[in-house]
Give the backbone structure.
Amino acid sequence: MSTRPIVDSHVHIWDTERFPIPWLENIPELNKQIWIDDYFAATDGLPVEGFVYMQVEVAPPYALIEAQTIAALAGADARVLAIVPWAPLEEGEKVRLFLEHLVAISPRIKSIRRIVQGEPDPEFCLQPGFIRGNQILPEYGLTSEICCNSTQLAANVELVKQCPGTEFILNHIAKPDIR
């Protein structure tokens, strides 16, 4: 077993009593509270020093409240090192007000994750509004998380090319079809 300190860069915890999480509704094994104590119980014995909280696709009206809740948790538990919330990047310039509210919540908010893997249009990320929303993230000190599937990867590569000032992080290696 490694004794080197671990920072887990992609952790999901959630509270279904607080927030509706639509994708969990038909998965009873997961449709329950899974919180920080559950995470650290599951990693007991490993030298996990902290983690990056990754948004869990709460219903969009709850996204700011999700970020506030995790920021409060981070205030109480220093092992929450960074927060990656959701934002409606497809709104382009209109997303600025949302981003202003997000970054005011906590300096631990470091990136935005607007999942596109479930969008029916494989080129959803190439909409002008979505491109613009990604282009302005650096103005708020934020990076962008790409969460797509492998069939959408080419379009996301084009998104990255159109946003030269934005840093991107690819989640789940674009979920390749390895089955």
Q: What stands out?
A: The two ends are 29 Å apart (CA to CA). The chain has a mean pLDDT of 96.
